[in-house]
TrEMBL record:
Its cofactor is Mg(2+). It is found in: Cytoplasm. Residues 315-336 have a biased composition (Basic and acidic residues). Transmembrane segments: none annotated. GO terms for molecular function: class I DNA-(apurinic or apyrimidinic site) endonuclease activity; DNA binding; DNA-directed DNA polymerase activity; exonuclease activity; phosphoric ester hydrolase activity; zinc ion binding. It catalyses: a 5'-end 2'-deoxyribose-2'-deoxyribonucleotide-DNA = (2E,4S)-4-hydroxypenten-2-al-5-phosphate + a 5'-end 5'-phospho-2'-deoxyribonucleoside-DNA + H(+); 2'-deoxyribonucleotide-(2'-deoxyribose 5'-phosphate)-2'-deoxyribonucleotide-DNA = a 3'-end 2'-deoxyribonucleotide-(2,3-dehydro-2,3-deoxyribose 5'-phosphate)-DNA + a 5'-end 5'-phospho-2'-deoxyribonucleoside-DNA + H(+); DNA(n) + a 2'-deoxyribonucleoside 5'-triphosphate = DNA(n+1) + diphosphate. Its EC number is 2.7.7.7, 4.2.99.18. SMART domains: HhH1, POLIIIAc, POLXc. InterPro entries: DNA-dir_DNA_pol_X, DNA_pol_lamdba_lyase_dom_sf, DNA_Pol_thumb_sf, DNA_pol_X_beta-like, HHH_MUS81, Hlx-hairpin-Hlx_DNA-bd_motif, NT_sf, PHP_dom. It comes from the Archaea. It holds the Pfam family PHP. Keywords: DNA damage, DNA repair, DNA replication, DNA synthesis, DNA-directed DNA polymerase, Exonuclease, Hydrolase, Methylation, Nuclease, Nucleotidyltransferase, Sodium, Transferase, Ubl conjugation. This is DNA polymerase beta.
Length: 602
């Protein structure tokens, strides 16, 4: 977490606590300030060193907030915040993770019932105590109860976008240690799952203790959970990070084993067994000679049962003739199959496909040639058209598409562009195009209303180069209505890309739950691309949706939905999500040249 993030988080906590104690307006001011501090390009500690006036140069940061920021940077705390925390000792983040529970609700429930965390909230809701509190009713109480499990899981799992930078930092740090021969992430983070339980790291080295020592002294390690021989765990940025150290000649086998998923590993291990081999974290071994021995063991009967209860673990030895283990590819190849990309390892047919040599060549992180969904300061982005275009050019893109929000359902505070704004923006895009050396396309992000219609008129849409249409409101509708809505939207003659189809926000709200096959079929038939929104809070469509789209022959678009230049870097999360859905470059609209893109848009 950068210092800017840290300060912003404190300001947001302050805003929540103010709101919970019934203060009006001020919370909004603090949240706006927090957002601008987080996005500010200069490190906050540098500005704070220049005093309150320097800090107040940040947009939306007034003198009072600037004073608190300076106080925090200098002393490590904000006096008023500390007081508020004592006044209202609640797990604000945990409680507000429940959909429908805001800081206001937290304040009321603490005052009335003394509720301070999720468990107490659940107990009170089950005892039907909440409905008795003024301002609450039976329906609200039921909603709270329904939404607690989602919130609880959200509290346990970290978003990929929060964990991946921590893992990258650990990788770079460990790669720099002399004793480290190789280092890789494994587990769910290597499979690019949208949320991860913990970060797993694997090091190949002849040494153990110096690496454990270095790991526990990693700058980001806030606490050591465990430090043993050849393994250690620390907490970094609120997430557990597990490190294992193995001998270099066993690195590939260990990487395969600890990448998982468990279901994939079972399928691969069974393939090994079928071939008279044994696969475990130490390597792939030929045990065909040992068959008689194994039978003898079985014959020994009851006594051995306890120890051998988990067959897979019972065989976790180095016995047998070693066939492979140094590299992962070699392990897969020795099992007569192609190596399987980590994103595919979910036991969804990848083992059979690899055995038959029909795994698709997955789209690569460097194959994107432009972004089809980006925002500017014409709507809720923070940067001009020219600034965003320049950032796209700098990334090496061949083209760039501007798609600000159109006005409509879900757009609050006058953020969206109406028809005349869109016309005016066309001229501005043409002008900005002179400032960069890549072509700029003018598009819009239109809103799909609850019934599947768009809120921008057809004539305006027809004049644009590209139309992204996304749901932003009515995200709680039932599956059937959601399916009809999205099918109708993809069938709209002017819609080119279905943006973040479910509207989910990972760990915050589940979003729509459409029949993905039906939407994929409709998208394929009508020549509309389905977006993988690469914003790590979204990753929407997810891997399963992408898989359905690819199987239906629909086109995918991997877009960042960037509101700032640095958010273009989120593209990698989108690419790996598309890979989880078995997408090839040929399936991805913005992996095509400008000509290829244009012919799709015709
Ligand atoms: P997560 O952390 O909950 O997002 O999911 P993973 O997949 O990272 O799971 P984790 O961290 O518990 O373990 C990493 C991988 O290591 C897992 O995918 C499979 C493998 N693994 C770990 N422990 C065991 C075990 O006791 N038995 C088996 N078969 N596999 C294991
Ligand atoms: Ca893990
Ligand atoms: Ca783990
Ligand atoms: Zn959107």
């Amino acid at each position: 977490m950068s210092r800017n993030d840290e300060v912003a988080t404190r300001l947001e906590e302050f805003a929540d606590l103010l709101e919970a104690t019934g203060v009006e307006y001020k919370p909004t001011a603090y949240r706006r300030a927090a957002e601008n501090v987080r996005d500010h390009p200069a490190p906050i500690e540098g500005l704070a060193a220049g005093g309150e006036d320097a800090v107040a140069e940040i947009d939306r940061v007034g003198d009072a907030i600037a004073a608190k920021i300076v106080e925090y940077v200098e002393t490590g705390e904000i006096g008023e915040l500390t007081e508020l925390r004592e006044e209202l000792p609640v797990d604000m983040a945990g409680l507000t993770a429940v959909e429908g529970v805001g800081p206001n609700t937290v304040g009321s429930l603490y005052d009335a019932l003394g509720i301070s965390d999720l468990d107490e909230l659940e107990t009170a809701a089950e005892a039907e105590e909440i409905r008795e509190v003024s301002g609450f009713g039976a329906k609200t109480e039921e909603n709270i109860l329904d939404n607690i499990p989602f919130a609880r899981e959200a509290r346990e799992r970290t978003r990929l976008g929060d964990a991946r930078p921590v893992a990258d930092d650990a990788l770079a740090y460990l790669a720099d240690r002399d004793a480290v021969e190789s280092v890789e992430v494994c587990g769910s983070i290597r499979r690019w799952k949208p949320t991860i339980g913990d970060i797993d790291l694997l090091v190949a080295s002849e040494e153990r203790d110096p690496i454990v020592e270095a790991f526990t002294h990693w700058e980001a390690a806030d606490a050591t959970i465990e430090a043993g021989t050849g393994k250690a765990s620390v907490r970094a940025d609120g997430t557990r990070v597990d490190l294992r150290i193995v001998d270099p000649d066993e690195f590939g086998a260990a990487l395969q084993y600890f990448t998982g998923s468990r279901a994939h590993n079972v399928a691969v291990r069974n393939r090994a067994i079928d071939r008279g081999r044994k696969l475990n974290e130490y390597g792939l071994f030929d045990v065909s000679d040992a068959e008689g021995e194994a039978a003898d063991d079985d014959a020994e009967g009851e006594a051995a049962d306890g120890a051998a209860a988990d067959g897979a673990e019972a065989d976790a030895t180095r016995a047998g003739e070693r066939i492979a283990g140094e590299s992962e590819d070699e392990v897969y190849r020795a099992l007569d199959m192609d190596p399987v990309s980590p994103e595919l390892r979910e036991d969804r047919g990848e083992v059979e496909a690899a055995a038959e040599g029909r795994l698709p060549p997955l789209v690569g992180p460097d194959e994107l040639r432009g972004d089809l969904h980006t925002h500017t300061d014409w709507s809720d982005g923070g940067f001009s058209i020219a600034e965003m275009a320049a950032a796209a050019e700098e990334r090496g893109y061949d083209y760039h598409v501007v798609t600000d929000h159109a006005t409509g359902p879900g757009m609050v505070g006058g953020v969206g562009l109406d028809e005349s704004d869109i016309e005016a923006q066309a001229a501005a895009v043409a002008e900005a195009a002179d400032e960069v050396d890549i072509p700029l396309l003018h598009g819009i992000e239109a809103n799909i209303d609850a019934g599947g219609d768009l809120s921008t008129d057809d004539e305006t849409l027809a004049a644009l180069d590209l139309v992204v249409a996304s749901p932003h409101a009515a995200l709680g509708q039932d599956a059937e209505a959601a399916t009809e809505r999205l099918v109708r939207a993809v069938e709209h003659p002017h819609v080119d890309v279905l943006g973040h189809p479910t509207g989910r926000l990972i760990n915050e709200r589940p979003g729509l739950d459409p029949d993905v096959e039906a939407v994929a079929e409709a998208a394929s038939a009508s020549g509309t691309a389905i977006e993988v929104n690469a914003n790590p809070a979204r990753l929407d469509a997810d891997g399963e949706f992408v898989r359905a789209a690819v199987e239906a022959g629909a086109t995918i678009a991997v877009n960042t939905d960037a509101h700032a230049p640095r958010e273009l870097d989120n593209a990698r999360y989108g690419v790996h999500t598309a890979r989880r859905g078995w997408a090839r470059a040929a399936d991805v609209l913005n992996a095509r040249s400008l000509d290829g893109l244009r012919s799709f848009l015709l």
